[in-house]
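Lecture 7 notes: from sequence to structure.

We start with a single chain of 365 residues. Read the sequence below before looking at the structure.
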Amino acid sequence: MSLRPFRNINRKKTKVINVGDIKIGGDNPISVQSMTNTLTTDVKATISQINAIQDEGADIVRVSCPDEDSTKALKEITKNVKLPVIADIHFHYKRAIEAAENGAKCLRINPGNIGDKQKIYDVLSAAKNNNCSIRIGVNAGSLERDILEKYKEPCPEALVESALRNIQILEDQDFFNFKISVKSSDVFLSIAAYRQLSEVTDYPLHLGITEAGSFVSGSVKSSIGLGSLLLDGIGDTIRISLSDDPVKEIKIGNEILKSLGLRNRGVKIISCPSCARQAFQVIDTVKVLEEKLAHIKTPVTLSIIGCVVNGPGEAAMTDVGITGGGKGNNMLYLSGVQSKKVLTNEIIDKVVTEVEKKASELEKK
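Now the structure, written as tokens:
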């Protein structure tokens, strides 16, 4: 166990659904997902990207199925990956049926956009027959026409009304294995919509700020939006939507959960921003350590502090710690206790060794 205490967030208790072998909702861990940006018909590239997403710590992956060739490719893809695959469907109900039959474990749809009720019933029948869950994906940019005319513009009430309408469609067909999202690219609109929806339903919620933007701006927007909701106890699965490598979406998603004490996976590095007091190059050291310790999945805390002002205090609360000292003599801490002096040029190798050792010890417990 990490020496650094975590605050407890009182999560709202929601219904439990299954996405393949992953349970969503209830007391189950908040899952992190991303979406491939390869052509789904490029089976080899899509499988490779899914595996990379999994290695970064994803629980679920979403794949776009815009045409029949894509849903056919899904059959080969799902056979060769371990992550449960969500098929992203918009208007074509046949694509949803094909995806369910070709190995998808969840369908992302907006029932109101599928068409007449018989088409929706056919999709739900395929989902039931193939043990496939559904995500009702309400988006501020694609609200039903009558709802948009009613409210004049996307607003929290409009998103929630759309969600409740689509929930009713599924419930009327005795289909309950679903989760819901009410996404917008606007942080405040998203937060308000999710808070309102959480008050009127206990189905699990998928959180996201859609089309959040580039790596930096999108990460910030998502951290503010999702972080606010997660602190309220709202949310059962998340996706960070970035105009960047999907692997980075998983990294940011996991970091958000780790920072809130909602996920304890891999090495958590506490490091200073560095200043003139630093006894070694903190920034460069942290960058190297992040790469060298990326393979560790066991929760371990590590502090890398450049001087003795805050170093000993941080090291006292981490599994492994390095505090900068004079003349290249830095102090190594193990389980919060001073251990030995480490020369600056030995920091990387020594820290990697001690973190791997600590992870191995924790795995055996």
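The radius of gyration is 23 Å. Keep this in mind for problem set 3.
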